[in-house]
Design brief:
With about 300 residues, the protein is α+β, with helices and mostly antiparallel strands. The chain has one domain (about 70-290). The protein contains 1 helix and 15 strands. The protein has one helix at about 10-90; strands at about 95-100, 110, 115-125, 130-135, 140-145, 155, 170-180, 185-190, 190-200, 205-215, 225, 230-245, 250-260, 260-270, 275-290. The longest helix has about 80 residues, at about 10-90.
Length: about 300
């Protein structure tokens, strides 16, 4: 385009000047874009790094928390085992006692003397039956801290049977369960039955059935936290005897137990002859008192 009032030479000079200015401004613009790109890149890297650190930290916290919960559950388990050892060490010796230390497990230790109702029925599963025992036997338990670990149904000592008849099995039931609002480690004691032929009575073989019961229902109502001492005392050992006479041959009789809703049966061999058998049933109850000790 021809500029009015300018010669051709002047136009070329102005064109060169305009071109140089354009190149200069373009260069400045490009440099500013590069300068802007560098901080944006660093910002993106910084944000990404912070996100990675945050995720890693959260994962580490979760793992540490889970390990802490496992450690505290292990302490609770050890506490309950120590208490069980104390109970069994004083059982059947009236007046015997033992103090134990319970470490801080982060949970809550409690006793419920009126828990765990036990009903024992003596029967031949046909025409004969007799209620031998119907009472609560109590329990002790520890509420665990909330965790993702599932302990439900785990037996640390004993198993789920409501009654046993072999000395090789422990009366202890120490197990994990879910209570009203938390996971719990529960300690209680199921009955044990034995049988033996001990002589004759009225020309019939005399059998002795003995049923052992560890009863915690004389314990204090306790709710304890952190560290403390407990004392287990065998406050008394009581025996009640009932006699049953059968006028026909009997090969076995059953003790049926309903222990806190769980049913169990043991069949005990009975010696008899054509005239029948005589069976003495002894219920031996050891009353264990768990209380706080001022050590």
């Amino acid at each position: 385009m021809k500029l009015k009032g300018f010669s051709e030479q002047q136009e070329r000079r102005l064109s060169k000047i305009a071109h140089k200015c354009f190149k200069k401004q373009l260069g400045k613009f490009l440099q500013s874009q590069k300068a802007l790109a560098i901080p944006v890149t660093y910002l993106i890297l910084f944000v990404s790094l912070m996100a990675i650190i945050s995720v890693t930290y959260s994962f580490a916290v979760v793992k540490i928390s889970a390990r802490g919960a496992l450690l505290r559950a292990s302490v609770a388990k050890q506490n309950m085992q120590v208490l069980d050892d104390a109970v069994r060490s004083v059982a059947w010796t009236s007046g015997a006692s033992k103090a134990v230390y319970m470490d801080d497990c982060g949970g809550i230790f409690q006793t419920q003397p009126t828990a765990k109702n036990l009903v024992l029925n003596f029967t031949d599963e046909q025409s004969f039956h007799s209620i031998l025992f119907n009472s609560s036997v109590g329990k002790a338990f520890c509420k665990l801290e909330p965790s993702e670990v599932n302990y439900e149904g785990l037996y640390i000592r004993g198993d789920g049977r409501a009654i046993i008849n072999q000395s090789s099995f422990t009366m202890t039931q120490l197990y994990a369960e879910t209570g009203n609002d938390a996971k719990e480690l529960t300690l209680c004691y199921r009955p044990s039955a034995t049988t033996a032929t001990v002589g004759t009575s009225n020309g019939k073989p005399l059998n002795l059935i003995r049923i052992y019961i560890l009863n915690l229902n004389s314990s204090q109502n306790l709710t304890l936290r952190e560290k403390f001492y407990l004392k287990a005392t065998a406050s008394s050992v009581a025996t009640t005897t009932s006699q049953y006479e059968f006028n026909q041959s009997v090969s076995s009789l059953a003790i049926k137990a309903v222990f806190d809703g769980t049913l169990g049966t043991v069949w005990l061999p009975i010696s008899s002859n054509a005239e029948g058998a005589v069976v003495n049933v002894e219920i031996v109850v050891c009353n264990i008192k768990i209380q706080r000790a001022g050590v």
